């Protein structure tokens, strides 16, 4: 297969131009066609010489995202199931807020982390996405919004997969997204979420970006976290917390800790007390997430009043906590649910 043009950062395209005896300023023109004008083929790039357009067409491909299904929630959330060139499928979600539109992108086909409450892990990991396949999710969603004059203003890398196990592609995706000649998404409007891949947390701390970091913890101690998140056996809770302390010291940027509340499992007052003790001295924020019901799992939602009590305990102990606003609940917008249904129908 030819490489995807969306895989390339501006600097990499400049190097390609140089290697192919083309003026490097053509790279910025190409970037403008890709991310500002958002064309769908090289032949549309009319200020590039025909010979260069033909050469680009010979050597690169546009990412093909086939829209298998699209659902729109009554709250404005849009969920796509996209087919890839190799017959795999991925999900992308666009969420409308009163402060702008955000997109949740996927970085892997499937996931091997194995969180016991998540649909993304059903079927395991198939492969990593390329940077261009992640980029194409944003460009395709933006093309949809162009019709109504809307814009994607923020990105969360919280879809299927573990972005820090696809680190280089994720970082190239981020570099393309924030570039001033591209979509130019503000760095502080982007959040990357990890289940706690410790070496990559240290690496990310050295990247010198303003991009937000979120860590999925879902438990206040090793024993419970290992039951919910098998990745904890590779990277124990204390190692994750030590990496977080390094990140905070290096960057001075607040970390968000994501905590999915599961009825009767990790949502008792004693869990909130223990979590507060662990996080009390850290510059952080806790995002409490009422767990989504996944038919293949047996977990149930925490009762509403218990969610508020969990939050009250954290805040009483000076740990900032909010409850995630639910969106797209009527269209199975949680990670992996739509893909799981598609996989099941394909297997019949």
TrEMBL record:
It comes from the Bacteria. [4Fe-4S] cluster binds at residues 111, 115, 118. Its cofactor is [4Fe-4S] cluster. Its main location: cytoplasm. It is an enzyme of class 2 (transferase). Keywords: 4Fe-4S, Cytoplasm, Disulfide bond, Iron, Iron-sulfur, Metal-binding, Methyltransferase, rRNA processing, S-adenosyl-L-methionine, Transferase, tRNA processing. Reaction proceeds by a ping-pong mechanism involving intermediate methylation of a conserved cysteine residue. Belongs to the radical SAM superfamily. RlmN family. This is Probable dual-specificity RNA methyltransferase RlmN. It comes from Paenibacillus roseus. The gene is rlmN.
